[in-house]
Amino acid sequence: MISIASVTKKYKGTANPALDNVSLEIEKGEFVFLVGTSGSGKSSLMRLMLREDVPTSGSVHVLGENLVSISSRRVPYFRRKLGVVFQDFRLLPNKTAFENVAFSLEVIGKSQGFIETAVPDVLRLVGLAEKMDRLPTQLSGGEQQRVALARAIVNKPAVLLADEPTGNLDEATSDGIMALIERINLAGTTVVMATHDRKIVDRLQKRVVEISDGRIVRDQVGGSYQQAANEQNRAVGDSK
Amino acid sequence: MRFGFVFSEIAQGLRRNVSMVISVVLVTFVSLTFVGTASLLQLQIGQMKTYWYDKAQVAVYLCSSVSPPTICPQGEAGAEVKARVAERLSSTTLKPYVATFYFENHKQAYDKFQEQFKGNSVAKFVTAEQLNETYWIKLNNPQDSTIITESFSGLSGVEEVRDQRSYLDQIFAILNAASLAAIGIAVLMLISAALLISTTIRLSAFSRRRELAIMRLVGASNFYIQLPFILEGVVAATIGSVLAGATVLLIVQFFVQGYLTTALPFTSFVGLADGLLVVPILIVAGIVLASIASGLAIRRYLKI
Question: What's the rounded Cα separation, in Å, for the pair B140 and B142?
C-alpha cells in the first residue's frame, strides 16, 4: 500500500538531511501513528507520500504508483485516491460546510447528482447533518475538523493522511475526532497520522513509528507515545 | 468537465481583479488599434502604389531659355531636337517599351502650371518661356523607366529626364516609415499587454491561493486548475481586441471614407472590405497573445 525504501531528503541550504535513509512499509487497512518532535521529519515524510515533494534519493510507492517517476500529469489522479487533513483544517471561509465538501468534488469533475447525494451522506457520517449550511466561522474547531474529514473521505480514498488533526483541539473534541478517524479506519481506509498527542497514541495502542533527526528510531505495533524502558531492545526493523 | 463551475470561477476572477482586467482590456485595445491602423496604412500604400505608379509617366524636359548653360549650352531646344526625340521614341528599339507619348509646348505647360498653382503667388511671376517644353512618355511597364533615362540623358537639347515615380517613392517612403513607427509602438504595447496579463494572472492566483491549495490537494487536474486563469486572460484580451477591431472599422468608415475621400477626391482609399479583413487578424492576435502570456504565467505561478 505504502512502501518507502532508503529515502533521503535534503533541502537546499541545510546541512543535515530532513530524512536520512528512511524505509517504511504500511499495509492495507493499517493505522499508523508517526510521532516525533517538531522538525524530526514527520511532515517531510507526509509530503513525500502526498507527492508534494520528491526524495533526494530512494523510492516512494503509494497505492501502486511510483511517486519518484510519476508524471506531473498523473499526480492529480493519484491524489484523488488519498484523503488529507491538517491541523489548520484548510476550509474555504466563504463557503458553507456543504459547499466546502462539494467544492472538492466539483473540481475533480463529479456530476451534480453525485454531489447532491454524496455530500449530505458524508456530512451525516461525521455528525454534521444539522450544520451543513453553516460557514466555517459559525462552527467550532472540532466541527471544522469534521468538515475537513468529510472532505477528505467523500471520494472514498484508500489512504487517509492526517497531519496533527487534533493539534488545535481540546481533549474532549480530540477524542471525538479520533473516534471518527478510527471508524474510517475500520471501514478499510489505511490511516497514517502524524501527531504530538501523547494521550491519543497511548490510548489507541496502534502501530507507532517514531522519527528523530530524520531517522526512524522505533517501529512498534501496539506502541505508546514514548518507548517504555523495558522495551528498549525492540528497535527498528523488529516491528509487527 | 463542469462548464458551469469553470465559468463561475472565471467570473469570480474577473470581478476580483476588476481594475487589472480593465487595464488589460485597455492596453490590448490600444496596442491592437495601432496594429490595425498600421496594417491598414500598409494596404493603403499598396493600393496607392498600384494607382499612382500606373499613372506615373516619364518626362523628357527639353532645354528652355532659362536652363543652366552648363547643361544646355546651345539654349532653347530647337525643332531638330524635338524631331530627334520624337523619332527616337518611335524607333524600333524603344517602341516595345513605350505605350504612348505626347509633346507639351510652352503654352500647354503654362496653362497646366496656372491650373495646378491656382491662387499661389508663384503663378503670377512665371512666364510660359520659363517652363520647359516636355515629352511625356507613358510606358508599358513603369519599371522600365531607366531605359528612357539612359536613352535621353546627355542628349544635346535635353535638360533632364525624370521618372515621376521618384517623387511618389518619397511619399511612399514617408508613409511606410509612419506605418513602421506605428508597428514599433504596437510591439512595445503588446509586450506591456503580455506582461500585464501575466501580472493579472499572478494576482488572481494569489487571491485564490486557498482554493488552489485545496484543488491541488483533492486532485483537480492541472487543466482544470489552469483553465479558468487562462480563460480570464483570454476574455480580457478578447474584449480589448474586439474594441480595437471596432475602432479600426470606425476609422475606415468615418475618417477614411467619410473625410479623406471628400478631402482628397482623386485618391483611392481603403474601404470597409479592407477593414473587415484586418479585424479577424486583430482578434486572433489578441487571443493568441493572451493564451501565451497566461499560459507562461500559470506555469510560473501555479506549480502543481
Answer: 6
Distance from CA of B215 to the nearest CA of A (A): 6
Q: Does A107 contact B at CB distance below 8 Å?
A: yes
Among candidates A72, A107, A155 on the partner chain, residue whose Cβ is nearest the Cβ of B215: A107
Nearby residues of B260 by Cβ (< 8 Å), 6 or more positions away:
B267, B269
Q: Which of B2, B214, B224 lies at the smallest CB-CB distance from A90?
A: B214
DSSP string over B71-82? T-TT-S--HHHH
User: For residue A26, what is the enclosing H or E element?
Assistant: strand A19-26
Phi and psi at residue B139, to the nearest 5°: -95, 155
CB-based contact B216 A76, cutoff 8 Å: yes
pTM: 0.69
In chain B, domain spans: 3-53+169-301, 57-163
Domain covering B57-163, topology: Alpha-Beta Plaits (3.30.70)
Interface test with A, best of B207, B210, B215, B217 (most A CBs within 10 A): B217
pLDDT per position as a tens digit, B76-102: 888 888 888 888 888 888 888 888 888
User: In this predicted complex, what is the ipTM?
Assistant: 0.83
